[in-house]
Design a protein that fits this description.
The protein has 419 residues and is of the alpha/beta class. It has helices at 14-22, 56-65, 84-91, 104-113, 137-147, 193-205, 213-219, 239-250, 297-310, 315-318, 331-344, 367-378, 396-399; strands at 3-9, 50-51, 54-55, 70-77, 96-99, 124-127, 154-159, 164-167, 173-177, 183-192, 225-228, 259-271, 275-278, 281-284, 288-289, 347-357, 385-390, 403-414. Helix content is 31%, strand content 26%. The two termini are 37 Å apart.
Length: 419
């Protein structure tokens, strides 16, 4: 299944600024400063606060940027937002932007309007907060799996763990609530495009402003499903929340995580044909390549890099060139299969660096498409994939234009706690 992501990010973070001022503290890791500046906290909306070298919005977008099921991303931003253009270059995936509104629900509706005419009523839309940087991929998978057949959609939630009190105007306890059956609403929330648009429009028509998408659907008579999500999927509201989010993102084993490096190399001679496949992209050329599969040297080198880092041998052991199953095969399938083996070993990709060696064809005009495809295959943001090209200064068989080659270096890290 596929979905579109909507992220409302037009808020100014008033409570965030007030909390920073009240405690006379600078948010963690220069969180209040615009990247590259020394601006005080109150100058910067919280979605651009920094944790562990990334802004909150980058952390919030990362799981979706690496998810092949995400068909597109629409951000609702404040008018003339001066910060996003700099951040957008680092996100690594294409995003669309619209002008957000005064309230979250207005921003969500504006983003939905941008998809009118492109999405059918029954297609899925996910809405995620820009201030939730700790979303786990497993929670996205669970939400999609459990809501796929739900007409009303659903949302991630976590059961209330604390005793709940109602405080009166003088700060006294008025009563204690029964917390049984009470859940905290998290994001992302997942609804079908048509019903979500209709529910928000109906709420606006009666002068009501829902605080989340599920409430709008509830008012419309629907009963969204609550899917159990991680309680660590916190929303950063105050400056103090940044320290908690940083600790959650770092994790107890981050510094001790096992890092493994692998390298891969592949070469193919030119033969009859009028195109070559490089990085999953079809590129017109005066020749094809002589190969059992589609001869994509980039993806073959990446496969060998992954296998090497994971200690799983080489591509020839898993996809023999005398096996008819792989004749003319799309090498993207090889990468997916190898990545599954990598995941089974408790490893995931951190980044990949690929070099294409050839006199021709030139890859400059295709680099972005190749990086995007590789990032999707490796399930990482595009910023974590680098691709470059060089020649051999007309030396050797590559320099004579008799073929092409690629070299890849891949870094993996353990997903399992150390010790």
């Amino acid at each position: 299944m596929h979905y579109w992501l909507i992220m409302p990010a037009a808020g100014s973070g008033r409570r965030f600024r007030e909390s920073a001022a009240a405690h006379a503290a600078t948010p963690a890791e220069g969180a209040g400063a615009e990247p590259g500046s020394a601006a005080p906290a109150e100058w910067l909306p919280k979605q651009y606060a920094q944790i562990l070298g990334r802004t909150l919005i980058e952390w919030a977008l990362a799981p979706f940027a690496a998810d092949a099921r995400c068909a597109g991303i629409v951000l609702a931003l404040a008018p003339e937002d001066p910060h996003w253009p700099r951040i957008a270059k680092r996100v690594g995936v294409r995003t669309e932007t619209v002008r957000g509104g005064d309230e979250r629900c207005h921003s969500v509706r504006a983003a939905l309007a941008a998809l009118t005419g492109r999405l059918a009523a029954q297609e899925w839309v996910l809405v995620h907060d820009a201030a939730r940087p700790c979303l786990a991929r497993a929670d996205i998978d669970r939400l999609l799996a459990e809501c796929a057949e739900q007409p009303a959609g659903g949302l991630l939630g976590a059961p209330a763990a604390d005793t709940l009190k109602v405080r009166g105007p003088d700060r006294e306890v008025e009563r204690t609530l029964d917390r049984r059956g009470v859940w905290r609403a998290l994001t992302p929330q997942m609804f079908r495009f048509g019903p979500l648009c209709a529910a928000l429009d109906a709420a606006f028509a009666t002068g009501r402003l829902p605080t989340d998408e599920a409430q709008a659907l509830e008012w419309a008579g629907a009963r969204p499903l609550i899917v159990s999500g991680s309680p660590f999927n916190i929303k950063v509201t105050t400056a103090e929340d940044l320290s908690l989010a940083a600790a959650l993102l770092a994790g107890p084993s981050r510094e001790a995580a096992a890092m493994r490096i692998g390298s891969g190399f592949d070469v193919h001679a030119f033969g009859p044909g009028d195109f070559v496949m490089l990085g999953g992209v079809r590129i017109a050329h005066t020749h094809g390549v002589v190969a059992h599969s589609d001869g994509d040297v980039v993806l073959h080198a990446v496969c060998d890099g992954l296998l090497g880092a994971a200690g799983l041998g080489d591509i020839g052991q898993h996809f023999r060139d005398d096996d008819s199953r792989w004749r003319g095969a799309d090498s993207s399938g090889f990468v997916r299969a190898v990545l599954e083996m990598v995941h089974e070993r408790g490893l995931r990709v951190v980044n990949a660096d690929v070099t294409v060696l050839a006199e021709a064809p030139r890859v400059a005009h295709h680099r972005e498409a190749m990086v995007t495809h590789l990032a999707r295959l490796l399930q990482v943001p595009s910023a974590q994939v680098n691709l470059k090209a060089t020649t051999t200064e007309r030396l050797g068989f590559l320099g004579r234009g008799e073929g092409l080659a690629a070299h890849a270096v891949v870094l993996l890290e353990s997903t399992r706690p150390s010790g």
